[in-house]
Amino acid sequence: MAKIQAIRGTHDWFGADAARFNAVIEAFGAIGERFGFQSVHTPVFEATELFARGIGEATDVVAKEMYSFPDRGGDLLTLRPEFTAGLARAYISNGWQQFSPLKLVTHGPLFRYERPQKGRYRQFHQIDAEVIGAAEPLADVELIAFADQLLKALGLGDKVVLQLNTLGDAASRAAYRAALVAHFSAHRADLSADSQLRLDKNPLRILDSKAEQDRPFIDAAPTIDAVLTPEAAAFFGEITAGLDALGIAYTRNPRLVRGLDYYSHTAFEFVTTHLGAQGTVIGGGRYDGLIEQLGGPSTPAVGWAGGIERLALLLEADDAAPPEVAVVPLGEAAQWAAARLANDLRAAGLCVEMAYRGTLKKRMSRANERGCALALILGEDELARGEVLLKQLDTGEQAPVALDRAVEAVSTALVGPIGTLEDD
Ligand code: ATP
Ligand code: MG
Fold first, then answer.
1. Do the beta carbons of residue 281 and residue 315 sit within 8 Å?
2. Measured from the CB, is residue 128 less than 6 Å from ligand 1?
3. pTM (two decimals)
4. Residues with pLDDT less than 50, the chain
5. From the alpha carbon of 61, which atom of ligand 1 is closest?
6. Distance (Å, rounded) from C-alpha 29 to C-alpha 37?
7. Taking a C-beta distance cutoff of 8 angstroms, is the pair 407, 344 a contact?
8. Edge-to-edge, what's the strand order for the sheet holding 45-47?
9. Under 8 Å CB-to-CB from 64, ≥6 apart: which residues?
10. What is the β-pairing status of strands 325-329 and 352-354?
11. Residue 120 alpha carbon, nearest atom of ligand 1
């Protein structure tokens, strides 16, 4: 029979890859708690309308990347391509303004119909942090500090730089839009087909084009600085003052825009040179207009999202903790006594590899390969004496210990001669 293939652009992460993936999520959870964020989980699918209205019709995501389908009842649904619109919808649906400012973290799978390549998939995963209901620049800076501490905790402090920009307020953006239209219109025929469309629909997004052909015109484009209103400039001044106060280094990138339409004021990306074209590992900014645009109360908000796979690709260490001890039964008579011993060790908090099958040699080499420090060998003779053989795998030293004191003996042996546990 023909083999069923995985869907293009999806991955089965396993082994060291899965360990790195988990390490990103674990560090994110730990640092998020330090910063006082609360966990939230929203649906993987939402009404297509939510993303069309929330992200913007002229974006790549809405125009050509969404997985949308009618369900059996005829409702048009979309697998979420990003988190923010769904979180904004949840905020409105549940009346969460009572908790404002609400600091949320979430993570999970997202779906975009993209051209798959290293660091770019059709199902990918993000960690995401949002502060909803805060207009204060303290919120922007706190979020950036969260991302900064997370990257440092992952050991990526030297591999990633922070790029910062402002997209200004509505008045600044209107003026900027006019300046960009004037600039790009003069080169319309030389722009990529996508950017010619953007020129009519949302010229700011030309700055986010990945087409080589657009590059020279983007590099020559005017920056927003000349048209920033005094209020928008003052807000940006607060952000840079905050980052300076916290000692967080950044580079000003005056042409940085985010791929999605709803951003205003602060825009930032943490970028690496180690992943080829897929260099942005975390991107975010302020989106003061989104919740109102989705039918909610006017609500300032700011957030970021990071690609778990891209971050995991940057991690070097295999962070999977090896099991501490292997339990090796010999002969069928010892099987359930050994299973019980493994179960007791696990209940006591130890990581245990149960060596299921093969000769003693096979089972011992499995324990070694998995990186266990100790093995507990249980044969019929040991069982008859109420003992188990405790073996130190690095030195080969071994000694019998009483079966009913095996958990204690293992804990003591793991601590080793340096930090010997108090023996009572
Ligand atoms: P890019 O410019 O690389 O397409 P984007 O602007 O579309 O990114 P966002 O929507 O801001 O990305 O998503 C935030 C982060 O999610 C990105 O910085 C990246 O790390 C990750 N990401 C986005 N799309 C993908 C994808 N298709 N596969 C893997 N990771 C992705
Ligand atoms: Mg994209």
1. no
2. no
3. 0.90
4. 418-424
5. 7
6. 9
7. yes
8. 45-47, 76-79, 67-70
9. 113
10. parallel
11. 28
